[in-house]
Specification:
The chain is an alpha/beta fold and 237 residues long. The chain has helices spanning 34-37, 65-78, 96-104, 115-119, 121-130, 144-151, 164-178, 181-187, 196-213, and strands spanning 3-10, 13-20, 26-31, 46-49, 139-141, 219-220, 235-236. It has 2 domains: 3-52 and 143-213, no CATH class; 55-130, no CATH class. The chain is built from 9 helices and 7 strands; from the N terminus they run E-E-E-H-E-H-H-H-H-E-H-H-H-H-E-E.
């Protein structure tokens, strides 16, 4: 049996959507830590996560090459959803103010820390401490808006995901690739602390994981740079 999974950070850890490729059996689970997911039985062959993998030592305007390319594809309407990750040394920050200061200190033109990125530094740190070159063979970075861009015939979904029309459009796109399986997941009782947006993004992550398993994925960029630890800095869709 071959399982794939997508995970999205939520208030209580990670919400994970799993799918067995042959039987199409699906499960929704919670994980307190990202490393727990690969220890589950069944264990997913590929796991997609919406957290940066591979960080620059010195922050630069616009972030990594994959971040810049993702924004270009998504355009003005959705490009702002792709934030620049912090430099590696910024992860030790304990407050948004400290994160901003540490990020600026990494280089002469280093930008401050976007508030959106500051808010998920604990998740970025968790993944950074867990990931390795070997584990990157199973764990891939994705961005939900790029997934929906791909499902939407390579056009950004312009409606904000937290508004009802935007949420409905994203669910419609998921149904276009999985049919009523999506409805069954959405009808499941959501665990406390998991927002509907979290679940939808986890399904998008699972779509990416399945594409990787079938060698159908697109990697951005096609020839990614590696960080100082040898991790590929790429976003997969």
């Amino acid at each position: 049996m071959t399982w794939v999974a997508g995970a999205d950070g939520c208030k209580v850890g990670w919400v994970v959507v799993l799918r067995e490729l042959k039987s199409r059996k699906m499960e929704v689970r919670l994980a307190s830590r990202i490393q727990d997911i690969l220890r589950w039985k069944p264990s997913p062959e590929i796991l997609g996560i919406d957290v940066p993998i591979g960080l620059l030592d010195r922050a630069v305007p616009g972030g990594r090459e994959c971040d810049k390319k993702a924004r270009k594809l998504l355009g003005q309407t959705r490009g702002s959803s792709v934030f620049s990750p912090p430099a590696g040394g910024t992860l030790r920050a304990r407050t948004p103010t400290e994160a901003d200061r540490l990020n600026r200190a990494t280089g002469p033109d280093a930008p401050g820390m976007p508030r959106q990125a500051s808010a998920i530094i604990p998740k970025i740190l968790e993944v950074d401490q867990f990931i390795s070159r070997a584990r990157q063979k199973r764990v891939v970075e994705f961005h939900p808006e790029l997934c929906f861009y791909e499902m939407n015939r390579r056009r950004p979904v312009v409606q904000p995901k937290k508004k009802r029309p935007g949420r409905a459009r994203r669910v419609q796109l998921l149904k276009s690739v999985w049919g009523q399986e999506v409805s069954r997941v959405l009808e499941m009782s959501r665990p406390s602390g998991v927002a509907l947006d979290d679940l939808i993004d986890a399904m998008a992550a699972r779509w990416t994981a399945e594409r990787v398993m079938k060698n159908e994925e697109i990697r951005l960029p096609s020839e990614p740079r590696r960080d100082s630890r040898g991790l590929r800095m790429e976003i997969v869709r």
